[in-house]
Amino acid sequence: MTKGMILAAGQGTRVRPLTKDLPKPMVPILGRPVMEYLIEHMARHGIRQIMINVAYHHRKIEEYFGDGSRWGVEIGYSYEGALEHGEIVPRPRGSAGGMRHIQDFSGFFDETTLVLCGDALIDLDIGASVSEHRAKGAVASVVSLDVPREHVDSYGIVVADREGRVQSFQEKPKPEDALSTLASTGIYLFEPSVVDLIPTGTNFDIGSQLFPMLVEKKLPFFVQNRFFNWIDIGRVSDYWSVLQRVLRGEVAHMNMPGHQVRPGIWVGLNTKIDWDTVQIEGPVYIGSSARVESGSRIIGPAWIGHGCHIRSGATVARSILFEYTRIGKDMQFIDMVVSPQYCVSKTGKTNYRGDDNCELRWSDARG
What we know:
By secondary structure, the protein is an alpha/beta fold. The chain contains 7 helices and 32 strands. It is elongated, with a radius of gyration of 22 Å. The mean pLDDT is 91.
């Protein structure tokens, strides 16, 4: 049996303001947390026991996923924090340190374990990856994707010999300096003996500390160069791009909710849309209790969350509106992520509601 571990204790600083009040694995894709798709994918491949390390906004993860029974799995949580001056303060232990904390507590890692970051969408053939790991007699495997050389400076690069045994790593090298084009995807397979090597009670990282240790000890540590979809949400601009791909139907196992009322247009319950006077070009989803006034336009790919209100003359193009966002009359929101408190362009530029320097006007539809 293969067990699972999802790394979910990070603060998600690079995708703020999306993570201001939300842990990164809970950022929504088609109205569902990104981590839910990971759990479903693991369940499809027979992984039934999953540990999740948590820290920032941990209750939002725990309350949503509970014991995992809705997905046919068992989920356990390992909180990483401390009591300081009467306050509970998140204190992540590092990706490897969090695993060692779990191992010291219960010995959970007694089988081959698949470790995933909680902020990416994947369709990896887990069964094939585990089979390759075991066939090579590996104690650790890192799953990689071959990327164009001109893009290596965005990734951690794995350097391996002809047999796939890992020799070294390069962190975001310049294209001319890169010794490989294999990018680490943050997907790992570990045997229990590897977890035993992680020092107890210290903050310890998988990529920068554990992996160099495995190379130094000359243990059977291999890279797997696999072809699969790996969609990382590292920045706000990535989030916008991911939603565009998902809404266009380019990612498997991610279906539009609601019901289709016209080609490429899906709606939830209790919507109020003046169909004769609005212009809607799919793919577009309009959530429950949303209101779209006459003379407005929605150009897809676009996601309109539940309770949103688009006023007359407004344009929403290739954008994501979080729930209860009101778009002002005659405003044009193009290539943006918008909530009742802020809007972020596809390049990551953020404006907050009420900023006098911002020409756009939007608000909370509950007001």
